[in-house]
Specification:
mainly alpha, 0% strand
Length: 279
């Protein structure tokens, strides 16, 4: 595959996109897991599916939308879903977790409607569901790179605030932090990363890349910064091994990346148990 990467542009796009996603997905995943909001990734991925299905329906129905990249509408739906989650969290102050299944259910319902209107599944939609090496275009790569630069910059600038919000929101409020604004910024970043990751990992599996490397990192890391570092390292390892496996076995990369993440998680658990037995 290494030689093929230098020869074919679509493999370059897929490999570089995978490397970028291997950084930003676990990076935000570390904050998501600590905040116990892992299901947010699932909810927003299903909302993104609605946007993709809507885009495919529009391009099929109206000529003017033929050149529309489904990624744009998917991102729009995902960001809108994140805003609705934050709004519902304020409506249900004592039952904030309700916001996630509400948006998840709505995303599935809207997605099914647009899929039906578009006369069911087709090759394009299937590649968005489970990821595809050949589906990543150069324009997708540049868009994902722009999202990555934005997300990493925001995390660096607001690291202390996001850290405090994740571990002690009440203290953050007492310290004068604008927790509502930070929640909103964080949710929009998660929405953008999910939309960006679906080309490689697939909509139905993207949440796995945001949580499994973090779960493995939490078994071996000492402290939150180490958790982020190991999460990114494990995420990159899973992406690289998954892409190579998908290329040689002719499989959807989403499945191979997730299975690679699970193997890393099992290895981390086994490593921790061996350490405990030696003590």
């Amino acid at each position: 595959m290494i030689q093929a990467i230098f020869e074919y542009e679509f493999l370059q796009n897929a490999f570089l996109t995978g490397l970028i996603i291997g950084v930003i997905a676990p990076l935000l995943g570390a904050f998501i897991v600590v905040r116990r909001l892992s299901l947010i990734a699932d909810a927003l991925s299903h909302v993104t599916l609605s946007g993709i299905a809507a885009s495919l329906f529009l391009s099929k129905t109206f000529v003017v939308f033929n050149g529309l990249n489904p990624l744009w509408l998917g991102m729009g739906f995902s960001v809108a879903g994140s805003l609705f989650i934050e709004r519902l969290r304020t409506v249900y102050k004592h039952y904030q977790e309700l916001a996630i299944p509400i948006i998840l259910s709505g995303g599935i319902g809207i997605g099914v409607i647009f899929i039906s209107l578009a006369d069911g599944f087709n090759t394009d939609l299937f590649s968005y569901l489970f990821g595809s090496v050949s589906a990543v275009s150069r324009s997708d790569l540049w868009l994902i790179l722009a999202i990555a630069v934005t997300v990493i910059s925001v995390v660096i600038l607001l690291y202390k605030e996001l850290f405090l919000l994740s571990f002690d929101e009440e203290y953050g409020k007492a310290s004068g932090l604008s927790t509502r604004f930070l929640h909103l910024v964080f949710m929009i970043m998660v929405a953008l990363v999910i939309a960006a990751s679906m080309r490689i990992v697939g909509i139905l599996l993207v949440s796995s890349l945001m949580t499994l490397p973090v779960a493995a990192a939490m078994r071996v890391a000492r402290g939150f910064k180490q958790t982020i570092f190991f999460s990114i390292a494990f995420g990159e390892t899973a992406v690289i091994f998954g892409l190579f496996s998908a290329f040689y076995l002719d499989l959807a990369p989403g499945g191979t990346i997730v299975l690679s993440s699970i193997l890393i998680l099992l290895a981390a658990i086994a490593f921790k148990k061996l350490q405990a037995m030696r003590k």
